[in-house]
Design a protein that fits this description.
Layout: E1 12-13, E2 21-31, E3 36-45, E4 56-69, E5 76-83, E6 94-98, E7 114-118, E8 122-124, E9 127-136, E10 142-145, E11 149-153, E12 159-162, E13 164-165, E14 181-184, E15 190-198, E16 212-216, E17 224-227, E18 239-241, E19 245-246
Parallel strand pairs: 13-18
Antiparallel strand pairs: 1-2, 2-3, 3-4, 4-5, 5-6, 7-9, 8-9, 9-15, 10-14, 11-12, 11-16, 15-18, 15-19, 16-17
Length: 248
């Protein structure tokens, strides 16, 4: 991180996978928007005869982290310069490492970048739920964060009802509210969200029926028009939508 963190990192892993090289026991003396300095120990697994049974060596180290880059998690440091006052691996006095960083940020997904489709409903008790799948069909990666807009309309295009955020009355997991940054690669990235509604009418109630939903990607302005043929019941009508999630 380039801004002063609430919790300073005590370890830095330099290689993913087996995590066989990195820094530990870190303490920091400075931390600014441009660099940070500290000290600790380099640990390095020699992976002989293999990484599971190798010997881990430790070297006293002084660190400077630099080179801020933009990422989906905000600005992060991407380079660490290490010096070894008592000698390092192979007798080296210093080394420079590239830090693993989150992917760079992408523009917000717009409606015209996406293809949308609606799955078949799953009816459970007095509530029903469906899912909308998004696919990035454009040549540019984009991202989504949070809740989509979801408005039901009738055959004349008249608005019936806007979905509320979340639907705790429909059961656990129907409309999750946890927010995540979803990066959708060009031509193939996929995501989805769920929506749920009360499908059992109250005594004597006539529930308005929709023919379509106007679906607005999170933090966007344009919408997709998708066929959604449902009748929302309840007094007041219950219709909720969850946050976008990665498609599995």
């Amino acid at each position: 991180m380039s801004q002063e963190p609430r919790v300073f990192p005590g370890t830095i892993t330099l290689a993913c996978g087996d995590g066989g090289i990195g820094f530990q026991d870190l303490t920091w003396t400075t931390w600014t928007a441009h660099n940070a300095t500290g000290s600790g120990h380099l640990f390095q697994n020699d992976c002989t005869p293999n990484c599971a049974h190798g010997t881990v060596y430790h070297y006293e180290a002084s660190l400077t982290v630099t080179t801020v880059v933009a990422s989906i998690s905000g600005p992060v440091f991407s380079v660490v310069n290490a010096s070894y006052p008592n000698g390092g691996p192979n007798g080296k006095a210093s080394a420079t490492f590239t830090l693993p960083t989150p992917p760079p940020p992408t523009p917000t997904c717009s409606a015209n970048q996406l293809h949308g489709s609606v799955t078949s409903p799953a009816v459970s008790g007095q509530f029903s739920e469906q899912y909308v799948d998004f696919t990035n069909i454009s040549s540019q990666a984009c991202h989504m964060v949070g809740f989509p807009g979801f408005e039901l309309v009738d055959s004349a295009g008249t608005s019936i009802l806007n979905a509320a955020r979340g639907c705790p009355w429909a059961g656990a997991g129907s409309c999750p509210t946890a927010v995540a940054y979803l990066n959708l690669p060009a031509h193939s990235g996929t995501a989805f969200f769920g929506f749920a509604w009360q499908s059992t009418p109250q005594p004597g109630q006539t529930c308005p029926a929709s023919t379509a939903a106007l679906v607005t990607p999170p933090n966007a302005f344009g919408h997709l028009t998708l066929p959604v043929h449902i009748a929302v019941c309840g007094e007041p009508p219950r219709l909720g939508v969850g946050t976008v999630q990665y498609a599995i």
